[in-house]
Amino acid sequence: MQTADIQKFKAGKWVQRYEYKSFTPNPICVQWLLTSPEILQLMSEADRYLGRLDAFADLIPDIDFFIKMHVTKEATVSSKIEGTQTSLEEALLKAEDLIPEKRDDWTEVHNYIRALNNAMDDLEKLPISNRLIRNTHAILLDGVRGKEKLPGEFRNSQNWIGATLKDAVFVPPTHEEIPDLMHDLEKFINVELEGIPIIVPHLIKIAIIHYQFETIHPFLDGNGRIGRLLITLYLIDKKILKQPTLYLSDFFERNRRLYYGNLTGVRVNNDLYQWIKFFLAGVIETSKKGVETFQKIIHLRDDVELNRLIKLGRKQNDGKRFINELYKQPILDGATVAGLLNIHVSTANRLISDFQRLGILKEVTGYKRNRIYAFEEYIKLFNE
């Protein structure tokens, strides 16, 4: 079995084409050697904080109520990296409540949500495979920008990052190389299923997988979003997380120059070591923030359910049902509330008024008709 030391890694080779050079990455399905005390210490810390984050899947009753917000936040930020302008609040609205100019970006964000949810369902019967990756990509580009760029299919032409091919910042491998490179990636993801005698700590492995996927750039569009989705899907597939609670897009967005710079550093300087350090730092910071968010959710939930809903008297049961819906959908209108709770619209409006009186909901349009209400305290926890 071929071996590779992270600190002595040779990323690949630059190949001269007509007027440009493309990059052909070396295979990654090899036995990786970890010899750096710094990497081992970071990995240990990342594992510890990731374990704390995962513990909330057991500690919080009905955690599924809150997962939808995590997914929506991830979809918003990951799409923002690619140029969409939808905020978290806008993503929580219905498309018809947005001005027409914002609906295309909204659709891209919601395609990301659909793609992730569908991939999570697929993981119950499929490993992370090229088939699953292509299926996810097809949903991501369904009916939005890039829909003409082979949704669900690996590219059949050269792509690049930059204004023109001649002046590109980075030119990935040619399309003829993609089948072999993606087969190698798929094997590395699933060494256990393939019976390949490779043992690599999972956080190191997904850091390498993400780098390699972004370097192969197998699709004409959507590579960044799929590459970031792969991180969460891998952690779920390998049972590192019980729920999709870790998303690195926010860390990558806030450290965008370092993110792209470290990926480039691997290709140009063979500096996989620095990329893995950056990736593990992201896992640590994001896990810490995730734990803090869950702690604040528990505090808010206790305050609402133990101190405020009790003031509803005989309406407490309806109030409890309503607050559970608000954890999943914290911006809504009266008709939506009526549908969710299977009650008359007039009853829903009275319940909304009660929630306004209790300081749970706030009307956000200023209209007298077609009013929309937000659970702002809760939304703020995901925007901090």
Write out the CATH superfamily name of the largest domain.
Answer: Fido-like domain
- Approximate helicity band: 55-70%
The structure class reads: mainly alpha
N- and C-termini, Cα separation: 47 Å
> What does the largest sheet look like?
3 strands, antiparallel
> Total strand count, please?
7
Rg, alpha carbons: 23 Å
Residues in β-strands, percent: 5-15%
Uncertain runs are: none
Q: Could you give the order of strands across the largest sheet?
A: 5-7-6
Top-tier CATH class of the largest domain: Mainly Alpha
Query: What's the domain count?
Result: 2
User: Which architecture of the largest domain would the CATH scheme give at its second level?
Assistant: Orthogonal Bundle
If you average the pLDDT, what whole number results? 94
Task: Compile the SSE list and pairings.
Layout: E1 3-5, E2 12-16, E3 21-25, E4 31-33, H1 37-59, H2 64-81, H3 88-91, H4 103-122, H5 130-140, H6 178-189, H7 191-194, H8 202-216, H9 223-237, H10 249-254, H11 256-269, H12 272-308, H13 316-328, E5 331-333, H14 334-341, H15 345-357, E6 362-363, E7 372-374, H16 376-383
Parallel strand pairs: 1-4
Antiparallel strand pairs: 2-3, 5-7, 6-7
Helix pairs in contact: 1-12, 2-4, 2-13, 4-5, 4-9, 6-8, 8-9, 8-12, 11-12, 12-16, 14-15
